[in-house]
Design goal:
The protein is mainly alpha-helical and 80 residues long. It is 66% helix and 0% strand. It comes from Lysinibacillus fusiformis.
Length: 80
């Protein structure tokens, strides 16, 4: 089992790759592809910013991995 710190670093790496890809000079007029990516990232952020301070690392990890898969057209991302 990986530590929470290691899992968070890998989630962060995926998020940075998404950010870098979204800022590349590309034609991003296909909004139908971006909407589910943005939705998954928004859900992950929403869970992390819970005012009680409780969040599910599994949920955040799943949402960021899904956004990454959608953006890079990958089947699955091995985040472990």
């Amino acid at each position: 089992m990986h530590s929470e710190k290691l899992r968070l670093r890998k989630i962060q790496r995926l998020a940075y790759e998404i950010m870098d890809e979204m800022h590349k000079e590309k034609d991003r007029t296909e909004m139908h592809k971006l909407i589910p990516i943005i939705d998954n990232l928004s859900r992950a952020i929403g869970d992390l910013t819970d005012s009680v301070g409780k969040y599910s690392l599994d949920y955040v990890e799943e949402k960021v991995k899904t956004a990454h898969e959608l953006l890079f057209n990958k089947e699955k991302v091995d985040a472990y």
